[in-house]
Design goal:
Pfam families: FGase. This is N-formylglutamate amidohydrolase. The protein is an alpha/beta fold. Helices cover about 30% and strands about 15% of the residues. The strands form 2 sheets. It has a 7-stranded mixed β-sheet with strand order 1-3-2-6-9-7-8, with helices on both faces. It is globular, with a radius of gyration of 17 Å.
Length: about 240
Amino acid sequence: MISEAYRIVGTPRFGGILVVADHASNRVPEDIDLGIARELMDEHIAIDIGVAGIAEHMAAREGTAALLGNVSRLVCDTNRTERDPAAIPEASDGRAIPGNCGIDREARLARFHRPFHARLTDLLESTPPALTLILHSFTPCLASTPGEKRPWHCGLLYDRDERGARAAQPLLEAEGLIVGDQLPYSGKVYNAAIERHVESEGRPYLYIEVRQDLIADAAGQAEWAERLTRICNEVAVVLEG
């Protein structure tokens, strides 16, 4: 199923795994001009590199479905609250986004932000998953702080409910991975989606960021899809018990 704001891959199933990747696309609708160089649309400011491939691999398995954002985070960032200026960013990692200045924010939010969240609510209520995987990726180094390398292979984020993170961390570390605890971002700051959809309802979830250089190609995406499928199933069993 495809709409302007989202697309669904796989068949949602009660007691299955739901992957949510809201930064999965760098698409910009033809009637929107962000006013930035086209090559920037392939960088991390526009898309979470690699997450769409991981989500699609995971959703090819029975019992897993994925809800993917269908526009660039520069068009509308659904991982921010509506009142957050960064929901329609005027700058990102030191890059100005002039096409987002002086626009009708209400119309943009109504077109993209609200339909995405409404569909996520519907999926969680109509086919409650055993676990919701909130999937993001992060750049190894921000352009605004080029001297600060990020050594973590992945990071686990949470706000008040850390059960999923605590269950997943030893499983990831057992595979030789460097795992950030609330790194490189904190779920207490970037918590719009989890607070609204999972923590507020007591739903089990795992919120993970994977470093983009590890998943920039098909092989890396397939490797992480297999890994996350295994770990999500193990985490779901732990949280169910």
